[in-house]
Specification:
By secondary structure, the chain is mainly alpha-helical. It is built from seven helices and three strands.
Protein backbone atom coordinates (compact mmCIF):
# COMPACT_ATOMS: atom_id res chain seq x y z
CA UNK A 1 0.00 0.00 0.00
CA UNK A 2 1.25 3.47 -0.87
CA UNK A 3 0.96 4.92 2.64
CA UNK A 4 2.34 8.30 1.60
CA UNK A 5 -0.47 8.76 -0.91
CA UNK A 6 -3.10 7.32 1.45
CA UNK A 7 -1.95 9.82 4.10
CA UNK A 8 -2.31 12.72 1.63
CA UNK A 9 -5.88 11.67 0.84
CA UNK A 10 -6.64 11.21 4.55
CA UNK A 11 -5.22 14.61 5.45
CA UNK A 12 -7.35 16.24 2.74
CA UNK A 13 -10.49 14.41 3.91
CA UNK A 14 -9.73 15.14 7.60
CA UNK A 15 -9.48 18.84 6.75
CA UNK A 16 -12.98 18.67 5.25
CA UNK A 17 -11.71 18.25 1.68
CA UNK A 18 -11.04 21.95 1.09
CA UNK A 19 -11.01 22.96 -2.52
CA UNK A 20 -9.33 26.34 -2.10
CA UNK A 21 -5.81 24.86 -1.89
CA UNK A 22 -6.25 21.77 -4.05
CA UNK A 23 -8.55 23.05 -6.79
CA UNK A 24 -10.96 20.16 -6.29
CA UNK A 25 -13.54 19.21 -3.69
CA UNK A 26 -14.99 15.96 -2.37
CA UNK A 27 -18.01 14.32 -4.00
CA UNK A 28 -18.46 10.56 -3.66
CA UNK A 29 -20.93 10.54 -6.56
CA UNK A 30 -18.24 11.32 -9.13
CA UNK A 31 -14.76 9.97 -9.71
CA UNK A 32 -13.73 13.25 -11.27
CA UNK A 33 -16.13 15.89 -12.56
CA UNK A 34 -15.60 19.02 -14.60
CA UNK A 35 -19.07 19.91 -15.78
CA UNK A 36 -21.64 22.36 -14.52
CA UNK A 37 -20.35 24.26 -11.49
CA UNK A 38 -21.41 22.71 -8.22
CA UNK A 39 -23.58 24.97 -6.06
CA UNK A 40 -21.42 24.53 -2.96
CA UNK A 41 -18.10 24.42 -4.81
CA UNK A 42 -18.06 27.07 -7.57
CA UNK A 43 -14.71 25.84 -8.85
CA UNK A 44 -16.80 23.16 -10.58
CA UNK A 45 -14.40 20.32 -9.93
CA UNK A 46 -15.29 17.50 -7.57
CA UNK A 47 -13.96 14.03 -7.02
CA UNK A 48 -14.14 11.03 -4.75
CA UNK A 49 -11.23 9.34 -2.98
CA UNK A 50 -10.09 7.80 -6.26
CA UNK A 51 -9.97 11.15 -8.02
CA UNK A 52 -8.18 12.71 -5.06
CA UNK A 53 -5.56 9.95 -5.03
CA UNK A 54 -4.86 10.56 -8.70
CA UNK A 55 -4.78 14.34 -8.23
CA UNK A 56 -2.24 14.11 -5.42
CA UNK A 57 -0.10 11.50 -7.19
CA UNK A 58 -0.24 12.88 -10.71
CA UNK A 59 -1.86 16.28 -11.38
CA UNK A 60 -1.33 15.87 -15.14
CA UNK A 61 -3.27 12.59 -15.22
CA UNK A 62 -5.99 14.18 -13.06
CA UNK A 63 -6.43 16.99 -15.60
CA UNK A 64 -6.84 14.47 -18.43
CA UNK A 65 -9.38 12.41 -16.47
CA UNK A 66 -11.52 15.44 -15.65
CA UNK A 67 -12.89 15.31 -19.18
CA UNK A 68 -14.38 11.81 -18.65
CA UNK A 69 -15.78 11.41 -15.14
CA UNK A 70 -17.15 7.91 -15.72
CA UNK A 71 -14.00 6.42 -17.18
CA UNK A 72 -13.48 3.01 -15.56
CA UNK A 73 -9.75 3.69 -15.77
CA UNK A 74 -10.09 6.16 -12.89
CA UNK A 75 -10.73 3.34 -10.43
CA UNK A 76 -7.96 1.13 -11.74
CA UNK A 77 -5.51 4.06 -11.97
CA UNK A 78 -6.23 5.01 -8.35
CA UNK A 79 -5.89 1.38 -7.26
CA UNK A 80 -2.49 1.17 -8.97
CA UNK A 81 -1.29 4.46 -7.47
CA UNK A 82 -2.49 3.46 -4.00
CA UNK A 83 -1.07 -0.03 -4.54
CA UNK A 84 -4.30 -1.77 -3.49
CA UNK A 85 -6.25 -4.56 -5.20
CA UNK A 86 -8.88 -3.43 -7.73
CA UNK A 87 -11.47 -5.43 -5.76
CA UNK A 88 -10.74 -3.26 -2.72
CA UNK A 89 -10.87 -0.14 -4.89
CA UNK A 90 -14.34 -1.23 -6.04
CA UNK A 91 -15.53 -1.29 -2.45
CA UNK A 92 -13.80 1.95 -1.48
CA UNK A 93 -14.74 4.05 -4.50
CA UNK A 94 -18.05 2.61 -5.72
CA UNK A 95 -19.53 0.31 -3.10
CA UNK A 96 -22.61 -1.58 -4.32
CA UNK A 97 -24.24 -2.00 -0.94
CA UNK A 98 -23.67 1.50 0.39
CA UNK A 99 -26.45 2.49 2.78
CA UNK A 100 -26.04 6.15 1.77
CA UNK A 101 -26.63 8.12 -1.39
CA UNK A 102 -23.16 8.76 -2.76
CA UNK A 103 -23.74 12.52 -2.57
CA UNK A 104 -24.45 12.18 1.19
CA UNK A 105 -21.07 10.65 2.01
CA UNK A 106 -19.09 13.27 3.91
CA UNK A 107 -15.33 13.68 3.88
CA UNK A 108 -15.29 12.56 7.55
CA UNK A 109 -17.17 9.35 6.76
CA UNK A 110 -14.91 8.58 3.80
CA UNK A 111 -11.83 9.24 5.96
CA UNK A 112 -13.09 6.83 8.62
CA UNK A 113 -13.67 4.09 6.05
CA UNK A 114 -10.26 4.63 4.46
CA UNK A 115 -8.54 4.71 7.87
CA UNK A 116 -10.19 1.43 8.91
CA UNK A 117 -9.17 -0.10 5.59
CA UNK A 118 -5.54 0.85 6.23
CA UNK A 119 -5.70 -0.78 9.69
CA UNK A 120 -7.65 -3.94 8.82
CA UNK A 121 -7.31 -4.49 5.09
CA UNK A 122 -11.12 -4.67 4.86
CA UNK A 123 -13.47 -2.05 3.43
CA UNK A 124 -16.44 -1.55 5.74
CA UNK A 125 -18.98 1.17 5.10
CA UNK A 126 -21.17 1.70 8.20
CA UNK A 127 -24.94 1.48 8.13
CA UNK A 128 -26.76 4.79 7.95
CA UNK A 129 -28.01 5.85 11.39
Amino acid sequence: MNTELVNKVLAWLDAGAPHEKTGFSFDMSSYVHDGEPCVTHPCGTTCCMAGAAIAFASPAVFKELRADSYDVNVKSAAAALLDIPVSDADELFSPIFLDYEYADVTPALAANVLRKYVKTGKVVWPRKP
